[in-house]
Sequence to fold (105 residues):
Amino acid sequence: MNEKITRGSDNIFKDLGFENPEEYQAKADLALHIIKIIESRRLTQKEAAAVIGAAQPDLSKLKHGQLTGFTLDRLFSFLLRLNRNIEIRVTKARKKSGKLATVAA
Fold:
């Protein structure tokens, strides 16, 4: 069987044709960071929701990747409440279009 393999970009949301794929990717990355921090602290969803100032059902949605209704600002506020610094850096793009990326330290 001959299957054609198409190399994707580094953004699945772009590959799937989403509008604003960089924002979707950033939200997914930030949500992953938030969940990893919560899991590393071994917090229950109820405890974690209290720490980040969200309702428990919202935290459950976040954990399951249901990011509709979560703004970047709101995700940033969760990270701040989890005692994380947020650094935003602007650099010149190497290609015609820029990209939005998150990096955890």
